[in-house]
Predict the structure.
Amino acid sequence: MDTVRINEKDNVCVNLQTGHKIAICDIEKGADVVKYGNPIGYATENIKAGDSVHSHNMKTKLGDILSYEYNPDYTELEPIEPFTIKAFVRENGDIGIRNDIWIVPTVGCVNSIAKQLSEKTGAICFAHPYGCSQLGDDMIITQLILRGLIKHPNAGGVLVLGLGCENNHLGEMKAVLGSWNENRVKFLSVQDCENELEQGIALINELKEYTSKDKREEVPVSKLKIGLKCGGSDGFSGITANAVCGLVTDKICAMGGTAVLTEVPEMFGAETVLFDRCVSKEVFDKSVNLINNFKQYFKDHGEPVSENPSPGNKEGGITTLEEKSLGCVQKGGTAPVVDVLDYGDTLTKSGLNLLNGPGNDIVSITNLSAVGCHMVLFTTGRGTPLGGAVPTIKIASNNNIATRKSHWIDYSAYGFDKNAKADELLDLIKRVANGEQTKNEIQGNREIAIFKDGVTL
């Protein structure tokens, strides 16, 4: 039986056929089960060397909100000379790796109009159910995410489509936007015009005419911002796809670029790995609040902090949230953590950033898009057709899913020469930045979803 031991401290190894865990030595009842060099739970019964280790004989140790001390332990990345990509340079100095026309509704009531305009013009519409009957922070979150999309540099032009009577009417949305380029952002309130389709098409044609003059220019990859996401993880995710993404994260950050790690519940149990890499006490304090506030969110709704992994994760060999989290944070490589952002914020610092938000796939990709990421690296062991507003590179952790779902998967990271795999993935990132379409773009799989945590009137 082929197996791999990830860390010399581990008392389990991974079966390379199934992704499931096998005890390397006897593990007494109550003792820690160790993987990635860290505890991933405890044995609920005596486990013999060679035994399978899974939900039948181990459990999570996760529980309440904790206190932490700042013990920085990281090494600055050795700078790497950045390669260049060809991108669209916007008026404010940002770059876009696409020059699409987007339709962003202010409210779900106009989704059908947005879809009709999309069908008639080829513009990409991002339907969602919110923008009205929301109160307080819940409404603000919707506005901030929509702002991030409307101002996203991957969109050459945007039609903001409103109804007219909604809470988030165009006046409110404009106040949240602040400034914008009137040639790239147009507004239409459908209650205030005679023929909304006719006027919508005319405005989209104006955007097309303006963006037709945009040309790609050579820029350093230090301008690139990548989002990191995993969905449908399996026992291989932490040792293939996520680990390869971690090497890519380090390379991008070492070249002056930016990477963003989110899915806060999938940091539970692995948070100290990230805390130790915070560049300052201020960033550490923000990281602690990030974790503990999200734990409190679970508790406020009467849910256990450890309510994860999913059935698919467990079938793929992942037993506890600690195990899933320690595999998940591999995507962040070894880069120092330079900043912590709240949901709806915008990126300001180069390097590895942490972003507040849940692990839900569609919400998470939308969150990464709205914060300013040009593309998302999405690792998966189970496969998904999902794609977001920005190019979503689907990276398989095993060859089986990469072969069976080749129309979903852009790259297979399976293999144990991780450095070679990272170089291949970095080349794919360069090609996508230069305009090569991802599978989700080719198939038209582009969706958004907004985090909801409030009263609906």
User: Anything to note?
Assistant: The two ends are 58 Å apart (CA to CA). The mean pLDDT is 95. The first strand starts at residue 3 and ends at 4. The chain is about 30% helix and 20% strand.
